Amino acid sequence: MNPDALDATFAALADPTRRAILARLRSGEATVTELAAPFAMSQPAISKHLKVLERAGLVSRGRDAQRRPCRLEPAALKAATDWLADYREFWEVRYQGLDSLLHDIQSLGGDER
Amino acid sequence: MNPDALDATFAALADPTRRAILARLRSGEATVTELAAPFAMSQPAISKHLKVLERAGLVSRGRDAQRRPCRLEPAALKAATDWLADYREFWEVRYQGLDSLLHDIQSLGGDER
DNA sequence: TAGTTAAATAACCACTTAGTTTTATACACG
DNA sequence: CGTGTATAAAACTAAGTGGTTATTTAACTA
Question: Domain B3-76 adopts which CATH fold?
Answer without folding.
Answer: Arc Repressor Mutant, subunit A (1.10.10)
